[in-house]
Each structure stands twice: as structure tokens, then as C-alpha cells.
């Protein structure tokens, strides 16, 4: 009997212990549930207090895609405030404003803390009222002047010669040299990209040097078949000089005709104007038939000034002596 009583008491004790364990476990579960449910209520309460309003980045100005790394100073909006976005210098700035303040575009710019230059442009007028989720873009504009140089091609000048051909003194062609032109260009940059370039000045800083090609113009002379067999008179020991188209005498002769090869200047007291002449130099150069059509301040006595086609030719002629045949006398 005693053994059975002991066994029954042991069983009762075990049962009590199990009930205690179950109660403890249930309590722990209840505590966990309370914390979990409480957390949900707190989360819901916080969400109700401050609702996040996401900006509408529909990109109406073809701006770069916005990313979290580009957003600066982003704040949360609620029923009393709204968000406006500024894009400048490659970044987005999202600011919140009180609706009751009637903020403007300039308020957004000042809130971000950027400074506009006189050249910068804004997608809206700075006094435009901001609206919810408005996106403003600022284009940074600046100008840059650059100086470049371009060659100025030289020209090739044909120099007619007569006496130089006879004297075999044409020489080598003079080589030409390109000049140089300075060009100043003003380039407009918008957000670092060149959008327009304008040339604002051009000037020659180095003149080109023309190449000279000497061309035989002996065909302009009328040498005939040699000295005439018949003539009015003959004057020997005549001193000859030469003048050309740029010797300051103009392009007209004293008789009103255009200067040209075959017209010579004389002293009318020695050789009458309009006389037909035949001229030959002592060194063998034949000027041929010519007409006394001009005069000159230095042409006195037995001096005859012949016309040659270029200054180059005149310089090589210098002073010569020879004979003048007066084929027919003028007036």
C-alpha cells in the first residue's frame, strides 16, 4: 500500500510540473505577439502621421534620368507642403515648400543655394509660382574666345619683260610665300557643350609674297625688217632711259593716249610730237618702230624715254645710247 501511494504522489507532482511549463511557454508566446502587434500599430501610426509623396519625374525637359545619387537635400512632403525639383550642374535638388507661402522659381534657386550668371537661362521665369512636383532646369551658359591662324595663299604675278629677255637677265622665278590670317572665334557653351561659334574678327598679320614669273613680251615691239632705208632725219648719240606703268607718270601720255609699248617721251623741240621713229641701241637692242607721244620733265635735248612693260624691265635697262631715225615728222 505504501508503494502505491508514493507512486500516485509522484504522478501528481509530474503533472503539476508539466502544467507550469505549459503556462510559462504560453506566456512567452503572448509577450511576443504583443510586441509584434504593437510594432505594427506603431508603424501604421507613423505612416499616417507623415505620408511620403514621390515627385513625378516624367522628364518633360528631356533631362537626364534621376538617380538616388543625384538627389540632394530631398525632403518629405505632406498635405501642407509640396515638392519642387531643380536640375543644375548635372544634379537634381528636391526641395519642399509650404503651399501657403506661394513660393517662386527664384525661391527654389535660392533654397538650393546656387548663383545665376547673366548668361544663364532658366526653363521658367524666376517669378513663376511653383506648383507641385514642378521641375526647373538651369542652363549654364558661358563664352570662350579662341585664336586660330590660317594661311593666305600667295598669288603668282606675271611680269612682262622685253629688254631683260634681250639681255638674258630674266633670272630665276621669284618664289612666293603664303601670308597668315588671324581669326578670333567666340564659342557659346551650354552646360559645357559647344552650341554655337561665331567669327568676331579676321585680320592679316603677315602679308603673302607673290611669286613672280617673267614673261617675254618682245612680241609687243614692231621691229620690222631692220632700220628703214628712207627717213626724214637720223639722230645719233641719243641717250635712252626707260619708264614703266608705275613710275608716277600716270597711265596717259602728254598727247592724251594710254601709255604702251611703242610710245616714247621726247623733247618736242628736238623731235616733234606724233613723229614716227625707229630706235636701235648701240648694244644691239632694237626697240623698233615707235611714236613720239609723250613728254617728261627730265626729257631734254637728245634724251628719249622709252616705255617698257614693267619696272623690273626698266631697272635692268638703265641708261643706254643709240640712234633715232625720224621716219616721219609730226607736228
Structural description of this entry:
The protein has 331 residues and is α/β, with parallel strands linked by helices. Helices cover 20% and strands 36% of the residues. The longest helix has 48 residues, at 2-49. The chain is rod-shaped and about 125 Å long.
**Percent of residues in β-strands:** 35-45%
Q: pLDDT average, as an integer?
A: 82
Head-to-tail CA distance between termini:
188 Å
Order of helices and strands: HEEEHEEEEHEEEEEEEEHE
- Tally the helices: 4
Structural class by helix and strand composition: alpha/beta
Strand order of the largest sheet: 11-15-12-14-13-16
Q: Tell the overall outline.
A: rod-shaped
Number of strands: 16
Helix content percent band: 10-25%
Q: Which residue ranges are poorly predicted, with pLDDT under 50 across at least 5 consecutive positions?
A: 1-17, 39-61
Radius of gyration: 54 Å
For the largest beta-sheet, the strand count, sense and barrel status come to: 6 strands, mixed, barrel
Summarize the topology:
Elements: H1 2-49, E1 71-72, E2 81-88, E3 91-98, H2 105-112, E4 121-122, E5 134-139, E6 141-152, E7 156-161, H3 163-166, E8 179-190, E9 193-206, E10 211-216, E11 233-243, E12 263-265, E13 276-281, E14 286-294, E15 303-307, H4 311-317, E16 320-328
Parallel strand pairs: 1-3, 2-5, 7-10, 11-15, 12-14
Antiparallel strand pairs: 2-3, 4-5, 6-8, 8-9, 11-16, 12-15, 13-14, 13-16
Amino acid at each position: 500500500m505504501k508503494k502505491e501511494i508514493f507512486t500516485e504522489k509522484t504522478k501528481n507532482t509530474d503533472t503539476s510540473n508539466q502544467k507550469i511549463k505549459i503556462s510559462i511557454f504560453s506566456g512567452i508566446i503572448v509577450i511576443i505577439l504583443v510586441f509584434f502587434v504593437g510594432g505594427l500599430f506603431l508603424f501604421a501610426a507613423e505612416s499616417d502621421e507623415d505620408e511620403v509623396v514621390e515627385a513625378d519625374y516624367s522628364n518633360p525637359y528631356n533631362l537626364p534620368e534621376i538617380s538616388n545619387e543625384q538627389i540632394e537635400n530631398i525632403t518629405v512632403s505632406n498635405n501642407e507642403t509640396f515638392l519642387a525639383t531643380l536640375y543644375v550642374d548635372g544634379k537634381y535638388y528636391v526641395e519642399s515648400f509650404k503651399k501657403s507661402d506661394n513660393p517662386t522659381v527664384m525661391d527654389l534657386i535660392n533654397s538650393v543655394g546656387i548663383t545665376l550668371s547673366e548668361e544663364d537661362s532658366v526653363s521658367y521665369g524666376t517669378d513663376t509660382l511653383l506648383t507641385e512636383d514642378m521641375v526647373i532646369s538651369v542652363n549654364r551658359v558661358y563664352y570662350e574666345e579662341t585664336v586660330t591662324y590660317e594661311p593666305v595663299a600667295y598669288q603668282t604675278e606675271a611680269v612682262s619683260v622685253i629688254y631683260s629677255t634681250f639681255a638674258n637677265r630674266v633670272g630665276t622665278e621669284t618664289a612666293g610665300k603664303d601670308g597668315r590670317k588671324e581669326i578670333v572665334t567666340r564659342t557659346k557653351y551650354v552646360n559645357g557643350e559647344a552650341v554655337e561659334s561665331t567669327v568676331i574678327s579676321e585680320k592679316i598679320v603677315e602679308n603673302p609674297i607673290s611669286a613672280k614669273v617673267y614673261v617675254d613680251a618682245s612680241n609687243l615691239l614692231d621691229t620690222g625688217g631692220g632700220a628703214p632705208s628712207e627717213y626724214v632725219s637720223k639722230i645719233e648719240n641719243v641717250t635712252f632711259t626707260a619708264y614703266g606703268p608705275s613710275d608716277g607718270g600716270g597711265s596717259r601720255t602728254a598727247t592724251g593716249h594710254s601709255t604702251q609699248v611703242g610710245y616714247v617721251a621726247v623733247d618736242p623741240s628736238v623731235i616733234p610730237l606724233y613723229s614716227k621713229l625707229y630706235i636701235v641701241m648701240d648694244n644691239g637692242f632694237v626697240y623698233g618702230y615707235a611714236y613720239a607721244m609723250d613728254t617728261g620733265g627730265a626729257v631734254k635735248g637728245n634724251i628719249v624715254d622709252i616705255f617698257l612693260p614693267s619696272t623690273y624691265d626698266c631697272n635692268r635697262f638703265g641708261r643706254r645710247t643709240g640712234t633715232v631715225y625720224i621716219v616721219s615728222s609730226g607736228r
